[in-house]
DNA sequence: TCCTGACCGCCTTGGAATTC
DNA sequence: GAATTCCAAGGCGGTCAGGA
């Protein structure tokens, strides 16, 4: 009885409580009934006994005495019953309290479960974050170029700069090429070492005038080469600049997307809504569908009849699977023929599809190439702008420096450290002890954070520390200005 | 609370596609 | 090349979210 009441849910608990009260009331009533019956029995027997004990007394006196005794006994009985009832009521109250506590416990647990489920949904959603931001085009192009260069290096060995970039041949090599065949024709038996040695001696013996055309050719080749390399270097620099710009944009976009995603996930988690969209892989709609197997052809044919027999999908699957297993090769043959035909058709369609894909890829590559050219152009323009801006900044700095040097006066009072600088000095010392090896920019950032975290009173204290020096500086400056104006 | 729409599971075999 | 995974068909019923 008590177990059933405690184990129930809210409704169950209430039902249990009612049942418990009813049972206890019933028990109390039974006890009261029993007591009354016992009282009646007792009163009857005692009257009989008393009648036997007092034969000398008058009948009236005996009766009166018996009634008094009965009343006293009944009162005692009633008192006991009252106490029992109170006890029973107390038990009911205790049970009620236990039930109430259990109900509260269940409610708390349900709330906690709900909260955990919402958390779980949020975490699951966070796993699904798929940014749509693609790698900056410039970067991907640079990486492709890098790959191509690496492949080129692998194929052609170390030191080769690339397929189209050939280092200029020195004058001697140019001359050597001219002379090699000649020497070889003169000495067909001579091996590589011998020919080289002969030509080396000959080269040393050549006059400056004889070497001059080769030197000139080398100079021209070298110039052209340096021009190409310089242009490539410049383009690379420009592309890097553009890449940095694009990377910044991408990072920002990515952050925006992630924040938006997080917000949506939080909202969904809170409102118990989880999207299941896009769970399937993105399929190419133009891709031909896979052909049906022989079994599928059969299954499809059988379906109509089985559906008419009111069979559901899983049942149909089981039945057709079983039937297929028991069929002979001859029985399967027509379905296999259909499947073969479908497969052939599929293969034909796939051929067309694959060809289409190849063409698309080629077209994409062409497009990419054009885009690359545009990018290069844009990058160069960007580089020009940057150089212009850098030049302006450089000149401004130089001018300022020049002016400063011109105006520099050793007698001018030096501005004292501000409250922040005083704080910074101390904080720096402390932070360096706490985090040895920390870089300066991080350190400065930390100092700034610490400064901002200071309370009004703390900041006041630092201001007070800086104040005397600042007052002195102001005074000195006033005097200095006066002196300056009088000298002018 | 009801309605609607989207999505998924059910179940099978065998071949294609992909991964290791 | 072996192992694994995915996909093809059918339609009903269940679940869930969002809106009225």
UniProtKB/TrEMBL annotation:
DNA-binding region residue numbers: 165-233, 288-354, 413-481
Coiled-coil zones: 71-126
Positions of region (Disordered): 140-167, 265-294, 385-421
SMART domains: HMG (SM00398)
InterPro entries per UniProt: HMG_box_dom, HMG_box_dom_sf, HMGB6/HMGB13
Span of the signal peptide: none
GO cellular component: nucleus
Keyword annotations of the record: Coiled coil, DNA-binding, Nucleus
GO molecular function terms noted in the UniProt entry: DNA binding
Amino acid composition bias (Basic and acidic residues), ranges on this chain: 141-152, 387-412
Residue span(s) of domain HMG box: 165-233, 288-354, 413-481
Taxonomic classification: Eukaryota, Viridiplantae, Streptophyta, Embryophyta, Tracheophyta
Protein name (Swiss-Prot/TrEMBL): HMG box domain-containing protein
């Amino acid at each position: 009885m008590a177990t059933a009441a405690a184990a129930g849910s809210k409704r169950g608990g209430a039902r249990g409580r009612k049942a418990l009260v009813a049972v206890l009331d019933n028990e109390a009533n039974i006890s009261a009934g029993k007591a009354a019956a016992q009282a009646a029995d007792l009163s009857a027997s005692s009257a009989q006994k008393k009648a036997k004990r007092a034969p000398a007394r008058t009948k009236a006196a005996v009766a009166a005495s018996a009634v008094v005794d009965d009343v006293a006994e009944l009162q005692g009985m009633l008192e006991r019953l009252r106490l029992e009832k109170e006890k029973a009521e107390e038990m009911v109250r205790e049970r009620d309290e236990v039930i109430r506590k259990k109900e509260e416990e269940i409610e708390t647990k349900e709330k906690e479960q709900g909260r955990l489920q919402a958390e779980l949904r949020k975490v699951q959603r966070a796993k699904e974050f798929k940014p749509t931001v693609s790698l900056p085009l410039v970067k991907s192009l640079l990486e492709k170029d890098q790959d191509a260069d690496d492949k080129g290096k692998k194929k052609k060995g170390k030191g080769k700069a690339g397929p189209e970039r050939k280092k200029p041949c020195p004058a001697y090599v140019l001359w050597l090429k001219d002379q090699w065949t000649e020497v070889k024709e003169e000495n067909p038996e001579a091996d590589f070492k011998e020919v080289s040695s002969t030509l080396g001696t000959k080269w040393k013996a050549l006059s400056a005038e004889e070497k001059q055309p080769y030197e000139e050719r080398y100079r021209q080749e070298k110039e052209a080469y340096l021009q190409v390399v310089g242009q490539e270097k410049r383009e690379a620099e420009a592309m890097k600049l553009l890449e940095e710009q694009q990377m910044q944009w991408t990072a920002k976009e990515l952050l925006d997307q992630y924040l938006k995603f997080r917000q949506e996930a939080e909202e969904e988690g809170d409102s118990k809504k989880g999207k299941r969209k896009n769970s399937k892989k993105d399929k190419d709609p133009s891709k031909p569908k896979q052909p049906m197997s022989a079994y599928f052809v059969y299954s499809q044919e059988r379906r109509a009849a089985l559906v008419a027999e009111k069979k559901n999908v899983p049942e149909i699957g089981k039945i057709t699977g079983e039937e297929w297993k028991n069929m002979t090769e001859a029985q399967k043959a027509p379905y296999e023929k259909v499947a073969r035909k479908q497969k052939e058709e599929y293969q034909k369609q796939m051929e067309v599809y694959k060809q289409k894909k190849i063409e698309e890829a080629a077209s994409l590559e062409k497009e990419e190439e054009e885009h690359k050219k545009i990018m290069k152009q844009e990058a160069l323009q960007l580089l020009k702008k940057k150089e212009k801006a850098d030049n302006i900044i450089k000149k401004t700095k130089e001018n300022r420096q020049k002016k400063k040097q011109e105006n520099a006066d050793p007698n001018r009072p030096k501005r004292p450290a501000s409250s922040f600088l005083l704080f910074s000095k101390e904080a720096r010392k402390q932070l360096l002890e706490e985090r040895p090896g920390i870089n300066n920019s991080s350190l400065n950032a930390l100092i700034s954070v610490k400064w901002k975290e200071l309370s009004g009173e703390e900041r006041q204290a630092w201001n007070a520390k800086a104040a005397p020096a600042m007052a002195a500086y102001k005074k000195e400056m006033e005097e200095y200005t006066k002196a300056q104006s009088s000298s002018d």
